[in-house]
Amino acid sequence: MSRFFLCFSLVFALFLISVADTVFAQENVGEESTIRYPAGYFSEWAPVTAQDMLDRIPGLDVGNSGFGGSSSRGPSSSRSRGGSSGRGGGRGFGGGSRNTEILINGKRTAGKNNSTGGQLSRITSGQVDRIEIIRGTSGELDVRGSGQVVNVVLNEQFNEASLQYDFNAEQSRDNTLKPGAEISYNGQRGGLNYQASVRAFDPYFYTISREYSMLGDFSPNDKILEIRKGDPGGGALTTNLDYEINQNSSARFNATWTDGRSTNDTLRKTTNLKVSPHVENFQIENSPGIYKNWEVGGDYEFNTVAGSRWKILFITNSLVRANTRERYDVLGESSQEKNLYLDSWNETKERIVRGSYTFDIFKDQDIEIGAERAQTILDSKLALGISGIEGTPSPAVGGLIPMPVSNANSTVEEMRYEPFIIHNWIFNARTSLETSILYEDSEITQRGDIAKQRDFSFVKPKVDFRYDLTPQLQLRGMIEKIVEQLTFNDFVAASDDQDEDSNVQAGNANLRQEWFWNYEINAEYRLPNDIGVLSGRVYYEDWHDRIERIDVTVDESQLQSANGNIGDGERYGLNVSASMRMRMIGMPNLLVSASAIVEDTKVIDPILGDERRMMGMPWRGRSNWAFRHDLPSLNLNYGMNLQDSFDGGRLRYDIDDIEYGSGDPFWGAFVEWIGPQNITFRLEAQQIIEKAKMCRERHRFVGRISSGILEEIEDQCSRSGPIISLKMTGTF
Q: How far is it, in rounded angstroms, from Cα 421 to Cα 414?
């Protein structure tokens, strides 16, 4: 908590200094709360891409804005054992989120994996006419109710094409060196804007962890040294087309394809401390896997002479993940014995179509009516084989004894229909009000090991009011009912790679959508003369059907838990941020950013019956500090980033254990030089503190945690060490 107040005090002090030092109106404040940055604004920094331009704008939160570029590391994901994060922004494609939304020429890409923001590093600075920060609401926008909208407007008469290359090499803690590359081709011809890129990625992950455990009577139990190496790799193709058919109609088409594979190896040494002399046991694991994803999306828009707008969009995609985990006991230098075989495969498919009609009803008022249809399908399979039990070995599970797993082979399908109506009212240049009501009707069907069908319906109202007290100071209030997207993997059994004592996580076919009422007040002050931005947000969330771990035990000899609905809860907090150019100390090209969030949550634990904090949230808070310093005369810029979470309250509750989490701050730094022919060289280091680590203390209990009988305490810390990369980017 003290770090939060330190951050807040510094932000407030910088605010007072800035206000005292500046008295002139901000030059680039336009009408209707829109901030405009023409291309000439960025000329002194010689940006190469649109992302470079956005990195120089104070107050933006776009990816690693102000610090880093896009990552070359491949896709990865894991299933949560602790509950949802609750910050997804709700269901449906048309609604906005609390994060920054990126538009290009006022349009958003009809895609999920192929996003508009991902195109920024592939758009050259010469294509950009201006960048707009849209703070008001409007029926002309492709997004509604977003926290921040950035519109990149391209030159209408830009008819040149460019080829951009991006080569990089990355070195991990154990000195393994991995390459990566991306080549993109983009340009404009008449009314057609086009982009196409091909990317090859081959990152490397190295983690070393140490664990010491003691028994319930605090006598030594064992210590474990574990080294994990991950080597994913593959390639991806992406294309984006935008065609202005005529002054009244336009169309866009987007496609992406990714084909990846991974090889994960683990070496584990366990030292038994209960005997003297100590006995050491060794295990190795191999986990090859695949990742395949494709997505196609598009939209068509028609504007009538009267000013109305028709729009229809579609998205269809598929994501396949497969992994085979085999674990061996090392019996000697050349002798191994397999004790675990775990094979998992799942495919998720989505099909979305959305249509809407927007029209004016009175002066400065418009209405959008429409509907969205979405189909989501998950096919999942899992096979488990173990040794040391009675049964007939089977080649289907690596030659081990098949172990039955409940809900291992299932298909989960959701059909959702969502009609909506949105009313936008611009009272004047300073005040706007957006109200909407959406009705959601969905059916979830599960087939396979479990057969179940359920229907759900929700009414989702929203009110978003914005008032510009001055051209610099905007106040915003919002009330909204948000229904969170279910994670379909929670419905079925899945592998558990976070607990060696638990090979499989159980699924739960009875999940319902969690939802909450969100109440928030925002304030944003843009300092005069483009010095920077100060903002703050106070929020309260009233949660219902919260999803966290519940008891799904069938056989008392084998306790089982799964993600399930545990009841109602609350979340409330304060978020403040500042982003400033240090003109007050004579360094206008030094951009300093700081942010902090402090919050609290509460829910009733379903196993203990006690009130506790929600899991999956950012604990008690976090802070982020960053700076970027440009030296235009040297074509050089450099920066640093520090992220830290407030320790305390970082607990995860399960049926038979409680985890206490803590971690060291994350440090990163970069230096970038723009050489001849606009070739950019960037040296970047992540996790630059060698001994920085993440720690977990797990308390295991005899039976359920409600017994209060402590069985074991595990104290584990892991670290990856510094990751250093060198990137070269150019355009011709």
A: 23
Q: Is the peptide bond before 528 cis (omega within 30 degrees of 0)?
A: no
SS3 585: helix
Asked whether 641 and 68 are in contact (CB, 8 A), the reply is yes
**pLDDT in the model for residue 528:** 87
Distance CA 606, CA 653 (A): 10
Question: Is the CATH code 2.40.170.20 the one for domain 2-731?
Answer: yes
Which pLDDT tens digit goes with each residue over 49-77? 888 899 999 887 654 444 444 444 544 44
- Residue holding tokens 């807040």? 8
Q: Residue 700: its pLDDT value, please?
A: 94
Query: Tokens 């640093």 belong to which residue?
Result: 640
Nearest to 235 by CA among 176, 290, 187: 290
Our CA angle for 646, 624, 135, nearest 5°, is: 120
pLDDT of residue 62: 54
pLDDT per position as a tens digit, 196-230: 999 999 989 999 999 999 999 999 999 999 999 99
Measured in degrees and rounded to the nearest 5, phi and psi for residue 488 equal -65, -25
Other residues' Cβ atoms within 10 Å of the Cβ of residue 372: 22
Residue partners of 388: CB distance under 8 A and separation at least 6: 339
CA proximity to 480, closest of 513, 431, 525, 438? 438
For residue 29, the 8-state DSSP code is B
Q: Would you say 71 and 90 are in contact if contact means Cβ atoms under 8 Å apart?
A: no
Cα angle, residue 19 at apex, residues 16 and 22 outer, rounded to 5°? 145
pTM of the entire predicted model: 0.86
Buried b (16+ CB within 10 A) or exposed e, 701-725: beebbeeeebebbbebbbbbbbbbb
DSSP state of 95: B
Q: Are 641 and 669 in contact (CB under 8 A)?
A: yes
CA distance 20 to 3: 26
pLDDT beneath 70: ranges in the chain: 1-32, 61-99, 138-147, 157-159, 498-501, 618-619
**662 - beta bridge partners?**
695
Write the single-letter amino acid at 479: I
How far apart, in whole angstroms, are the C-alpha atoms of residue 4 and residue 622?
Answer: 8
Q: 397 by DSSP, 3-state: which?
A: helix
Residue 159: per-residue pLDDT: 67
Residue 470: predicted pLDDT:
87
Q: Which among 500, 442, 533 is positioned nearest to 11, based on CA atoms?
A: 533
Task: Give the tokens for residue 332.
Answer: 């000697």
The per-residue b/e assignment along 87-104, b for 16 or more CB within 10 angstroms, e otherwise, is eebbbbbbbbebebbbbb
Would you call 288 helix, strand, or coil by DSSP?
strand
* Residue 536 · residue 554 · CB < 8 Å: no
Q: How far is CA 22 from CA 42, 72, 529, 587, 621, in A?
A: 22, 41, 7, 15, 32
Which of 118, 166, 163 shows the shortest CA–CA distance to 729?
A: 166
